[in-house]
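Subject: design request, 405 residues
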């Protein structure tokens, strides 16, 4: 018997940071949750869902996940883009959650069943100078992590994105007011990065998996120089060495280095990633289910990537809500070409709103046994944390020119 979508509600909540959450309720009382968080542009996705999708969804067959995906993607005429794809992802995740709950199975069972028991995850270490960074790495090692992303300050600069001083926690979005501005100087970074990462490698020994994110700040020549200077550090990956849309230019970087490359956290559809996959210009695809159209689209992209020996290395910062984190866990459990997942962790307030059954220990993420995606949202708690304007910072060159992300 068909199960019909009866209610569509959008929640915007800010337990330490903003999240956009979609609730779909069926006529027989099953509730599914989706994530539509787009860091710094949250209200645009909330409006897309509320003003343009909600009424079109009510009355549809909740079991027809693929048909609903096609209806929202092909039917709208306007395709792709982060706002559209995050909105479609939220609907998709909520419908997978509903199907799992209705059938009494975790979502990964619906995707063919697990091909592994747990996901290897990397987390973040950050410190302005080498002693602070090593301290941060040690704290993450004590928590059991076997893979760590190391970010550090640059002499001469006041701030560097993703880097804190004095052991403070890092959060991508600054809360209250407009975007902060930071000055960036690539030459100083290129001089400094090899020494710092070599010091980290020497400190941790050969086994720990070390990663580094260049946050799209380099041109291909600078990227090749950086990668070559890091060959001996044995990085697990070097991330976002050039702006993600400059795909053809990645060939030049690739030809110069054997350091594994990861790109794609800003991608929204297979069309953003096809050249990188088919020419195997990357080793890891960073797309997240919330920004890549949900489980339905991401599983096709990962199946396509499998043909080219490109692995999934999904984005998992604090701005990917526990609902998407869990959806990504279920998808990656059932995906052969999974490599590693980012797990930045959440402020304790996030746990007051999102009750997740996944567990992180020993550097691995494991699912719970609940049917569906295994995340429940406490709506009363969500209402206690209203939206706060928050943005990623904007970087400028020393002369004031806006710099690439
Ligand atoms: O919203 C964007 C941030 O989450 C992103 O900049 C963080 O680069 C990032 C990463 O790899 O987690
Ligand atoms: Mg990144």
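Subject: RE: design request

Done. Sequence follows.
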């Amino acid at each position: 018997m068909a199960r019909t979508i009866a209610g569509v509600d959008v929640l915007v909540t800010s337990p330490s940071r903003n999240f956009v959450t979609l609730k779909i309720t069926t006529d027989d009382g099953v509730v599914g949750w989706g994530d539509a968080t787009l860091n710094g542009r949250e209200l645009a996705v909330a409006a897309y869902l509320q003003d343009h999708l909600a009424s079109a969804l009510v009355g549809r067959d909740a079991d027809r996940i693929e048909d609903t995906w096609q209806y929202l993607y092909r039917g709208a005429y306007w395709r792709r883009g982060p706002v559209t794809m995050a909105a479609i992802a939220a609907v998709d995740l909520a419908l997978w959650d509903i199907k799992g709950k209705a059938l009494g199975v975790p979502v990964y069972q619906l995707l063919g069943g697990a091909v592994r028991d747990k996901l290897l995850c990397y987390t973040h270490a950050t410190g302005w100078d080498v002693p602070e960074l090593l301290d941060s790495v040690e704290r993450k090692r004590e928590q059991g992590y076997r893979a760590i992303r190391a970010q550090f300050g640059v002499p001469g600069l006041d701030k560097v994105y993703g880097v804190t001083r004095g052991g403070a926690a890092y959060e991508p979005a600054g809360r209250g007011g407009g975007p902060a501005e930071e000055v960036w100087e690539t030459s100083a970074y290129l001089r400094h990065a090899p020494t710092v990462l070599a010091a980290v490698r020497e400190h941790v020994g050969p086994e720990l998996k070390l990663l580094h994110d260049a946050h799209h700040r380099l041109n291909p020549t600078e990227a090749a120089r950086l990668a070559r200077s890091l060959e001996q550090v044995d990085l697990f990956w070097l991330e976002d060495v050039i702006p993600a849309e400059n795909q053809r230019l990645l060939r030049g970087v690739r030809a110069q280095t054997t350091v594994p490359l990861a790109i794609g956290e800003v991608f929204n559809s297979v069309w953003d990633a096809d050249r990188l996959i088919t020419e195997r210009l990357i080793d890891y695809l960073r797309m997240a289910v919330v920004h890549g159209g949900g489980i339905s689209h991401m599983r096709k992209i990962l199946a396509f990537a499998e043909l080219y020996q490109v692995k999934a290395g999904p984005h998992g910062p604090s701005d990917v809500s526990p609902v998407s984190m869990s959806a990504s866990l279920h998808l990656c459990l059932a995906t052969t070409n999974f490599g590693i997942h980012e797990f930045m962790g959440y402020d304790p307030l996030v746990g007051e709103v999102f009750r997740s059954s996944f567990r992180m220990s020993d550097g691995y993420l494991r699912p719970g046994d609940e049917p569906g995606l295994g995340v429940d949202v406490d709506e009363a708690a969500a209402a206690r944390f209203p939206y706060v304007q928050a943005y990623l910072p904007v970087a400028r060159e020393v002369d004031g020119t806006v710099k690439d992300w």
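Residues 4 and 109 are 23 Å apart (CA to CA).
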